[in-house]
Amino acid sequence: MVALLAVLVLGCVGSETENQQRDDDRYRAPGVDESPAWTAGRDTVQPTGYRVFDSVIVSQTPSKLVYRLLAMNSASPEVLMKTVRVAFDSIAQSDTSLAAARAILYTMRPASEGQAELIPSVWGEWVPSEGWDAAGPRSPRRTYRSFIYSGRPGWSRPVASDSSEGDR
């Protein structure tokens, strides 16, 4: 009887853990790069080289910018996502007035002889916990997160240099 009860209890615990994992996955956006538990595999990935080839000021006060990056080598989506995260770390460290940033990482695809097409492969946001729209002046106590996704940018309008950009 005790053995049967132990099996039932262990079965419930395993079931609860599986349900909790499914519940956690419901609230996690695909490609989000913020939690060590979810990015354990990516944390061992080395980023590829990149160059910032354009930056657009979206808002002067608070300072919000969109960066366009070019991957110097072809790489897997995981490597490209890690590259954007490294770029955000570098940008945030070098510009302490920055309130929020977005980045698009492009890869090159040969189009014709001597020509190449830029493909937006990964995009992301480096924002305070309040999000892009509510980002204000940067303070040392504010928590910032990087959200990184594969594919084309998820914001609704093309990058513009007016302060109304950024609606989702």
What do these coordinates show?
- With 168 residues, this protein is α+β, with helices and mostly antiparallel strands.
- It is 26% helix and 33% strand.
- It is built from two helices and five strands, in the order H-E-E-H-E-E-E.
- The protein has a five-stranded mixed beta sheet with strand order 1-2-3-4-5, with helices on one face.
- Helix 2 links the parallel strand 2 and strand 3.
- The longest helix has 25 residues.
Give the key terms.
single chain, 168 residues, alpha+beta, five-stranded mixed β-sheet, 5 strands, 33% strand, disordered C terminus
List the helices and strands and how they pair.
Elements: H1 2-26, E1 50-59, E2 63-71, H2 77-94, E3 98-112, E4 115-128, E5 144-150
Parallel strand pairs: 2-3
Antiparallel strand pairs: 1-2, 3-4, 4-5
**End-to-end gap:** 57 Å
Which regions are unreliable across 5 or more consecutive residues at pLDDT < 50? 1-39, 157-168
Radius of gyration: 20 Å
Give the proportion of residues in helices: 25-40%
Give the number of DSSP strands.
Answer: 5
Provide a count of the helices. Answer: 2
The amount of beta strand, in percent, is 25-35%
- Overall average residue pLDDT: 75
Task: State the strand order across the main sheet.
Answer: 1-2-3-4-5
Structural class of the secondary elements? alpha+beta
Strand count, sense and barrel status of the largest sheet are: 5 strands, mixed
Shape: globular
